[in-house]
Amino acid sequence: MELKQLYMKDDALISRKEYIFQVEFDKATPSRFEIRDRISKAVSAEPDMLVVRRIDVNFGERKALVLAYVYSDKKIMKQLERQSMLEKNGLAEKPAEKPETKEPEAPKKAEA
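The structure corresponding to this sequence follows.
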């Protein structure tokens, strides 16, 4: 898997850097976790401070465009990113599902 940085923007106001990478691969599209690890090494960032937002692959091509954000503060990352995006990146746990409570059935009236 080859990684090529196409774009970098520093958003100092919200303490993050925005990157666009082109990823070339031989077989199947790499997982979000593989891409996140490679990007974190390329930009010298901690993997738990990096969120892979998008992986765009055109059908039949062996390359993808990846949009990734690197945050400098974990608190700001949790405020700005959706919970589902943090879950996809392995940065948050899925909330436990509440067991369904069944309402007691009302007794049926006998027909006369």
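The domain at 2-88 is CATH 3.30.70.330 (Alpha-Beta Plaits).
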